[in-house]
TrEMBL record:
Record organism: Mycena sanguinolenta
Keywords, comma-separated and alphabetical: Acyltransferase, Transferase
Entry's Gene Ontology molecular function annotations: acyltransferase activity, transferring groups other than amino-acyl groups
Segment forming the signal sequence: none
SUPFAM superfamilies from the UniProt entry: Acyl-CoA N-acyltransferases (Nat) (SSF55729)
InterPro entries attached to this UniProt entry: Acyl_CoA_acyltransferase, GNAT_dom, Trichothecene_AcTrans
Pfam families in the cross-refs: Acetyltransf_1
Domain N-acetyltransferase: start-end pairs: 94-228
Protein name: Acyl-n-acyltransferase
Length: 269
């Protein structure tokens, strides 16, 4: 059982002035996909994250939900999830299009404040963050090689990002953020899709009942080379995190009784 949720926890849609804190949180919590080779490296706030978050916070087809908890009279920013919703395209019902999901966020001057209360990184920690570009490119290839994302053809909710501050993991915050989308999807009787790498895949599968879509699975070694399903089965462990590799998959969560098919594989809710 996770520890109890921190007292005073609040969940709300992100505002424009939350962007720097959000970027900081993302920098503090690299995911397994691209950056885990540099877990000791922190940079504040990361320009790469700022660049994609700034327009996203105003996009009504993306919903950024954040978790804040009161610490010493200030809001500490401890979690984030990003959702989109795909609806049937009225011009071509075999396809989907992004639907409005978020309230309008007024354009405000972005305040250079950091409500995470984290002290600046030490000199040792502030080495330049070097994204593992070979790894990122290999993951992109892995994703493209599998079936195209089912969200392009199936009305659904899609989880595009999930992060919980390292000091607050294990309190049920990640589950709380994901369950919101599962509840919305259950009401509308549509699936929820998420792409995950290593620890994300385990979390969505074991903690939240997602199912791995096997045609989308991929395994990469430390140099970003593909390892085939057959090689994995015959004991190649180059994809394991401790060996510098990574694996990933698209996962689906289905409402009760919903049946979903992808490349002749059937998944049931
Ligand atoms: C993955 C992550 C979001 C989980 O958030 P969290 O708030 O710590 O998760 P919760 O406290 O809600 O955990 C709920 C349950 O999931 C389990 N769990 C958490 N992380 C897990 C993991 N990586 N693998 C398997 N189970 C996991 C917990 O042990 C807990 O189980 P319990 O109820 O039996 O005790 C968080 O660890 C994180 O931000 N990681 C870094 C970023 C990342 O990998 N995001 C996923 C993107 S692909």
């Amino acid at each position: 059982m996770p520890r109890p949720l921190p007292p005073g926890l609040q969940v709300r849609q992100a505002r424009a002035d939350d962007v720097p804190s959000l970027a900081t949180l993302l920098s503090l919590t690299p995911d397994d996909g691209t950056l885990y080779q540099y877990p000791h490296v922190l940079k504040y706030p990361d320009d790469m994250h700022l660049d994609w978050l700034r327009p996203l916070v105003h996009d009504p087809t993306s919903l950024i939900r954040i978790v804040v908890v009161p610490v010493d009279g200030k809001d500490k920013f401890v979690g984030f999830s990003c959702w989109t919703r795909q609806e049937a395209d009225p011009l071509d019902p075999t396809k989907t299009r992004p639907a409005k999901i978020a309230a309008e966020v007024p354009v405000a001057d972005e305040v250079e404040k950091d409500i995470t209360n984290d002290s600046p990184p030490s000199e040792e920690q502030s080495e330049v963050l070097v994204p593992n570009e070979a790894r990122a490119a290999a993951i992109e290839r892995g994703r493209k090689r599998g079936s195209p994302s089912p969200a392009k053809t199936t009305p659904c909710y899609e989880l595009g990002g999930l992060v919980v501050h390292p000091d607050y993991q294990g309190h049920g915050i990640g589950s709380l953020l994901v369950r919101w989308g599962l509840d919305e999807a259950a009401k509308e009787r549509v699936p929820v899709f998420v792409g995950g790498e290593t620890q994300g895949v385990d979390f969505y599968e074991k903690a939240l009942g997602f199912q791995r879509l096997s045609p989308t699975e991929f395994w990469l070694d430390a140099e970003g080379r593909d390892i085939t399903r057959e090689e994995v089965k015959s004991g190649n462990e180059g994809w394991k995190k401790e060996n510098g590799g990574v694996s990933g998959a698209e996962l689906v969560w289905l409402p009760d009784g919903y049946v979903f098919e992808l490349d002749n594989e059937v998944y049931k809710g």
